[in-house]
DNA oxidative demethylase ALKBH2 (Sphaeramia orbicularis), 264 residues
Amino acid sequence: MEKFVGQKREEHSAANDGSTKPLRKKLKVENDEKVKEEEFDPEDDEDTALAEFSHPIPWQKIEAEGLDCDYALLFSKEEADRLFRQLEEEVVYSTGQEAKVQVFGKVYNIPRKQATYGDEGLTYTYSGVKRFACPWTQALEYIRDAVTKTTGHTFNFVLINRYKDGQDHMGEHRDDERELDPLCPIASVSLGAARDFIFRHRDARGKESSRQIEPVKLELAHGSLLLMNSPTNTFWYHSLPVRKKVLVPRINLTFRRIVQPSQK
Ligand SMILES: O=C(O)CCC(=O)C(=O)O
């Protein structure tokens, strides 16, 4: 039997009204004490906007043998809706070689869209393909800084996966590439459709598995943050399976700290 870690789904379902608003709005008190709404100005308002993320948020601990994760709702539904729409405008997804994976020497199209952003000059090689970091966009910087304020960890790279609906998926894998700083958790932010996310212990995979260990199953909600702490990615594979009933898109951002060989 799968171990299910439950959350409240209905409060965090994604909006689909298609409208585009600025990332965040500020309230300005005028001389006559009337409160006026102003457009978000990224130059002067970012610290104020991010201040709320320095307050503790309720974390849910998810533990099993060799698995250590923390889960929380980071963004309100309204803010998660706005961030989703902004990412839809800003993120440019890979095409060509970067939109493929290599498994045992064979090249496949990936069943979702992918993009990589981060600090200048960083690269990340996984599934046999080298990815280059595009410069951070405004929304990505905002989300990255919110994750940093909440967790105390800094990140220099983000892998973005966009699932157009429940047919798009990600197969079982571990994020254990040599470039990843082992002391920094992988911070996974989800926006859009809620999707199941399954961990499976490396000794309990396949018919010939040596041990019986229950998989750990979560539902990643709109606006949520999942921290995969060490040593989770050594012992546990994770996947985002097909869910045919899911008809709306989802964007997942995994913030990582890359250490390039020259820095090691
Ligand atoms: O979309 C997800 O939640 C899974 C992402 C993932 O497994 C990865 O980026 O390694």
About this structure: The two ends are 42 Å apart (CA to CA). The helical segments are 42-51, 77-90, 138-151, 232-235. DSSP finds four helices and 18 strands in the chain.
